[in-house]
Structure formats: C-alpha cells, structure tokens
Write a structure and sequence with these properties.
This protein is α+β, with helices and mostly antiparallel strands and 405 residues long. The protein is built from 13 helices and 16 strands. It binds pyridoxal-5'-phosphate.
C-alpha cells in the first residue's frame, strides 16, 4: 500500500493469556437456559459486565454475542406492539433497522443533521405520529447525537434507544454515549474500537428493561414458567449469550479503550489541522458539548466539486482505500419492495398510515452518500504523523486537481 499503513491490531499477549486461562479452565460458557444463578452466565461474563458498568458509570451491562443481538433485545424490551412505528436514521448499519422489523414494528426514517451525520431532532419531530413508540438514535462515526434536543421534540412516553456501536467512550455534555438514552450499547465486532471478534454489550439504568433484555438473551419463553411475575409480551427468547473466552478478552480490551481513543483523537486532530486549510472541504465539527471518538473521519466535499474526479485523482496518486459515501438504509430492496415475512405485507399491513421509502425521503443522507462524503477509515489502520501528513497532502492536491479539470 502506498502509505505503508498497517492494519489496526490492538491484540497482544494479554488477550492471549486471557483466552488461555479460559481454555484451561474447560468452562467455555457458564450459561444455562433455566432459572437460577447460571441464567446470568459464567464468571468471566459476570465479571466483564461489572467492569463495563464501572467504566461507563451505568447500572446494568448485559453482554450479548453481537450488538445486532443487543439491538434485538433492546427493541423487544421496550414492549413494542406489532404495527408500532420506530423512528431511526438511514445513515447506519442495516442491523439498526432490522431490529425494529424483527418485532413487526415499522421503521420510519428521519434525515441526518449535516453537521454531525447523526439523526436530526427537527426531522424526528416531523416524523412523529400517534403510532410512534421509540426512536433508535445512532452515534455515527464516533460522534454523539444531540440527545437533549431529541428528548425535547418527543412526547414523554416515547423511548429512546441509542446504537452506540461506533462510539464507546464518546460523550455528550459529559455523559457517556450508550448511557444517556433509555437503553444503549456497543458492538464488540472486530472492526470496532475494542473487540472480541464478535460480541456486544447492552447498557441501561432501568432495572426492568435490563431484566427483559436478560430474558430475551437467554430463552425467555422457557424460563418464564418459574417467574410468575415476569412479563409475557415479546418474551420470545433466543440464544444471544456471550461465551467465556470473549468475556475474558473483553476485560483486557476494555482496559485498552482509553489509550485507543487517545490515539484516534490525536490522529483526527492532525487531519483536522491539515485539511481545514482547504475551503473546499468540511472537516468534522468541534463542539465542547461533544467528545468524538472518531471511528471514521468523515470529509465533506463542497457541492461545486465532483467527487468522481477527486477519487480518480486520488487513485492516480495511489490512494484507493478512502470510502465514498456511507449508507441509505431506507433504499434497501427490502424497504423499496416492502417484502419481509413471506409474501405477507407484514409489518406494514398492521398500520393504516402510509409508508414510502422512495429516493428523496432523506435528501441530506442521500446527497452526502451519492455526491459529497469521503470517509477516512481511521479504525482500519495504525496512523503515524508522517502518514497523515502524506495522505493530507495528496487529498488537498486531488481536490485542487478536481477543481481545475
Ligand atoms: C457494527 C454496527 C452494528 C452491529 O454490530 P455487530 O456487533 O456487528 O452486530 C450496529 N449498528 C452500527 C451503527 C454499527 O456500526
């Protein structure tokens, strides 16, 4: 590769000895799908959850085998009725929207805020109907949503779930992302800041919601007989449990999170210093209310500049790993054709509102995706100062070249 970038890898002998300790114990999972102490998992899982609680200053942490599983639990836990609407952003990973559909609720997409790339409170306000039950806000690229504004535009009974997969350690007005909403959580998938290969953790300060998440994680339907006081709706349980090896490694990784964030922040500041020199580029905004942990470093091209030309020019200088655009989940074929559960029209047939997922629904997200955004994948590589200087030099040159042709 042109810049000699090395793939990001935070593993060393600490993770190795954590994994070895578990293998030598012979106990690779401590879970049982029946009521009793083992319903909550083995010693490493319990310990890891305690450390997550301590780190993020949150009352409950519930480990799962992926954050997609975590979202599934969270959406089930808030007691969705089939046909309820859940507002979310198109600028996320598909799992965010699938966790809504899974419970036969209807995703409603609100556009992103051009400054933060996160769901825009004003657009949320316009999307609220009598059927709205929740909002799934996503702290995208490591940047928090504006939770106070989101709360302000919503009726009180509407729950907020935060998908903080990309933002462990990010803060909003001094509070950790993932702990501000009713339920939140993080991904521990191998591309994220810290990882266990696959894994995730749900965080909440609400005891009842935590309890429901724990039930859905571990075969709720078969456990509930011995718990007459437990809820019944949406208590369709799965096996979404985390193994002991992942939990043991998770503890080591969590301890490394502050150092990883520091490295990302230092790299991002240098990118900002160098790239903000160009009038044709918008760098991530800096606001004292937010601590960004920079999963990605998004760059926005001025409207007058043709992204194709910039990419072509970057390519001619040997740079072909920058990512043009992000996602428009609302334009996935699943939504365009409204086809999910066999040939039924579920979940849309459960509501008499009309739903359209046509282009034009989220103009900011669409234009950023199609024309204006270039992402620097901070999460994929180790970045030296020299490499950042060299990449910025090439980016600035390519933007200039694109302007002149
Ligand atoms: C990675 C990611 C997920 C899914 O997490 P997994 O652990 O891979 O299932 C969900 N939402 C966002 C925004 C993500 O980046």
């Amino acid at each position: 590769m042109k810049l000699g970038l090395k793939p990001f890898n935070s593993y060393d002998n600490e993770e190795e000895s954590a994994a070895t300790r578990v293998v030598q114990s012979g106990i690779l999972s401590g879970f049982l799908g029946i009521d009793g102490p083992q319903f909550l998992g083995g010693p490493e899982v319990i310990d890891f959850e305690k450390e997550v609680q301590r780190f993020f200053c949150v009352d409950h942490a519930i480990t799962v085998n992926s954050w997609s599983s975590g979202l599934l639990c969270a959406l089930g836990a808030i007691d969705l009725e089939p046909g309820d609407e859940v507002i979310t952003t198109p600028w996320t990973m598909s799992a965010t929207a699938m966790s809504i559909i899974n419970w036969n609720a209807i995703p409603v997409f609100a556009d992103i805020d051009p400054k933060t790339y996160c769901i825009s409170p004003l657009t949320i306000q316009k999307a609220v109907t009598k059927r709205t039950k929740a909002v799934v806000a996503v702290d995208i690229f490591g940047h928090s949503c504006d939770y106070d504004e989101i709360r302000k535009v919503l009726p009180k009974h509407i729950k907020i779930i935060s998908d903080s997969a990309q933002a462990p350690g990010a803060t909003y007005k001094g509070e950790f992302c993932g702990t501000i909403a009713d339920i939140g959580g993080f991904s521990l998938n191998c591309h994220k800041h810290i990882h266990t290969g696959e894994g995730g953790v749900i965080t909440t300060n609400d005891r009842k919601l935590a309890e429901r998440c724990r039930l859905i994680r571990n075969h709720a339907e078969s456990v509930i007989m011995s718990r007459p006081d437990a809820p019944l709706s949406n208590m369709l349980g799965y096996n979404l449990r985390m193994g002991e090896i992942e939990a043991a490694i998770g503890k080591v990784q969590l301890a490394k999170l502050p150092a990883i964030i520091k490295t990302r922040t230092v790299a991002a500041s240098l990118f900002t210093e160098l790239l903000s020199k160009s009038k044709s580029l918008t760098v991530p905004s800096i606001d004292p209310n937010y601590k960004n942990v920079y999963y990605m470093y998004p760059l926005l091209l001025d409207e007058s500049i043709c992204r194709e030309k910039v990419l072509k020019s970057l390519g001619s200088h040997g740079i072909n790993f920058l990512q043009p655009g992000y996602t428009n989940i609302h334009l996935l074929p699943l939504f365009r054709h409204k086809k999910v559960y066999g040939n039924s029209d579920l979940p849309w047939s459960l509501s008499d509102n009309t739903y359209s997922y046509e282009p034009g629904l989220c103009p900011v997200a669409e234009s950023f995706h199609q024309k204006r955004l270039i992402n620097i994948p901070l999460n994929h590589y180790h970045w030296s100062k020299g490499q950042i200087h060299e990449l910025c030099r090439i980016i600035l040159k390519s933007v200039d070249e694109a302007k002149s042709v």
